Amino acid sequence: MLPRSSKPPALLAGSNSGSLPVVVTVAVFLSIALYNSIELLIMISLSFNKHRGVYFWSLLLSTAAGVIPFTISNLFDFFNVPPLWLTLLLSSIGFSFMIPGQSVVLYSRLHLVSNNYTILRALRYLIIIDTVILVTPTIVLYWGSVYISTKHWTQAFHIHEQIQIAWFSAQEFLISSFYILETVKLIRAHPGRGRRLTIILYELLAINLVAILLDIALLALQYSRLYYFQVIFKALVYSVKLKLEFAVLGRLVSFVGLCHATTVVREYPSFITTVDVSSVGND
């Protein structure tokens, strides 16, 4: 999210103030983000028989209330579609669900590979606290930078923007790293289960690596002062990451099902919402 008064040259206003390559790039990125989101909503509706659980709701809200309004707000902003308050409202709602929602999606499947309830609980509290202390100031500074539009508000927004994007990226990296480590432990604990488990492991590692690389690309754009382009790219990145997470759960269900085919079913503490394997479609 970026105040209009702070956009870099060639991205100051609507399509007429940018070069054709800029307009095409923005249109392509946002169109792909919308396409990914709509496709994911269709996949969710077809794959889940029971509409419940942390994973289902975090995935649904991150897409429907996160990526979609965030992408639409960027379309309105870039092409100068009035009124301004509607653009700001859609952007604020989308940001609030899209960014923290990605961390919740990551968190929601960790119980499939880890019995370390202390770390699971700590990660849950980390997500909640970070959402409160980072999202709220971002939205306040965003609106203030646009409507008050003083130097101090704009500077405060840019500083906080750099902090929150770095922090949320680090948070997602932490959760993904923990997930990768636990997955490696799980497959080492069940040797000789065949080629399929090895393939699943490498697929899971590859998907998480791609997600981490996308976060690095966002950070590179942010700290290269390509702020508005970073915002446009962010919508695409999070739509791709959510689709990857949807694929991850299918692989995890298959993986855990194979690993525990001959073992006793795990019991989970009350704060963990387990996944009904029968309600999730696999590839």
Automatic annotation (TrEMBL):
Superkingdom of source: Eukaryota
Membrane-spanning parts: 20-42, 54-72, 84-110, 122-145, 199-221
The keyword Glycoprotein appears for this protein: no
The entry's keywords: Membrane, Transmembrane, Transmembrane helix
InterPro entries: DUF7703
Domain DUF7703: 24-258
Protein name per UniProt: DUF7703 domain-containing protein
Species of origin: Aspergillus wentii DTO 134E9
Taxonomic placement: Eukaryota, Fungi, Dikarya, Ascomycota, Pezizomycotina
